[in-house]
Design goal:
The chain has eight helices and nine strands. With 246 residues, it is an alpha+beta fold. The longest helix is centred in the middle third of the chain and has 18 residues. It catalyses: an N-acyl-L-alpha-aminoacyl-tRNA + H2O = an N-acyl-L-amino acid + a tRNA + H(+).
């Protein structure tokens, strides 16, 4: 695709008004979420808003979703707690809950037009840990594989997982999307074994590349979206997609 929203090279999409998909993760001082659960919940939040009736057709969010996807596909993760979280919950959006994580996703906003209750939230400070090592992912379920050679903050990794989930969604048929949605968007986020990373990036699965605006070098491959339906049969061109997040 010559004009993909996930290309880091300049394209016609850069001339369109730029929008961003805001995600807010709840991080209370006393009970922060586990890192892996936050990443998985963020990915499910992106899928949930993509599948929501309000995002399609004549839905109330459809215009913003189209404008966002016509330009670059940007996502920004901010953190909130206490009263900040309650103010974020009062804004139009969807809250998605994991085992320990809560993430609220909002319809896209202009890069310079964030609602004040979201604009004041911090981007930094989203460093999270897993109290226990994540269990092995179910090979029959979708897995978003993180690059084992990259160190990313939880907030950065949450956005990248959201990109990968969106790429997988785009590659699926309508029937496969409906089945994933009806099952509650099961997925896992795991760090790939270094010995498998080259294989994962070379078999035509959706692949996220980063433009290098924050934390990591331009062109870095960050996540591979390994959905069973995409392993079963080829979809689209099988190209390795790239991304340019905020």
């Amino acid at each position: 695709m010559s004009d993909s929203p996930f290309r880091s090279e300049p394209s016609a999409r850069d001339e369109a008004p730029q929008f961003v998909l805001p995600l807010v993760v709840r991080i209370e001082k006393a009970e922060p979420p586990a890192r892996t659960d936050a990443l998985e919940t963020s990915a499910r939040a992106v899928l949930t808003i993509l599948a929501d009736d309000r995002s399609a057709g004549e839905g109330e969010w459809a215009g913003a979703m189209r404008d966002w996807q016509d330009a670059r596909i940007r996502k920004v993760v901010r953190r909130a707690r206490g009263a900040e979280w309650r103010r974020a919950e009062a804004l139009p959006g969807i809250s998605v809950t994991g085992k320990s994580a809560e993430v609220r996703v909002f319809p896209p906003v202009p890069l310079d037009g964030w609602p004040k209750d979201l604009a004041r939230l911090q981007v930094s400070g989203t460093d999270l840990d897993d109290p226990e090592p994540p269990v092995d992912a179910d090979p029959a379920a979708p897995v978003l594989w993180l690059n084992p050679d990259l160190g990313m903050s939880a907030g950065k990794a949450m956005a990248q997982a959201g990109h990968a989930a969106q790429l997988a969604w785009w590659e699926l048929s309508d029937e496969e999307r409906a089945a994933w949605r009806d099952a509650g968007f099961p997925l896992a986020v795991r760090t790939a074994d270094p010995s498998r990373w080259s294989e994962l990036t070379g078999i035509g699965l959706p692949l996220v590349r980063d433009a290098g605006f924050t934390e990591i070098a331009p062109g870095s491959c960050t996540v591979v979206a390994d959905h069973p339906a995409l392993r079963r049969e080829p979809h689209g061109s099988g190209r390795a997609a790239s991304t340019r997040p905020e």
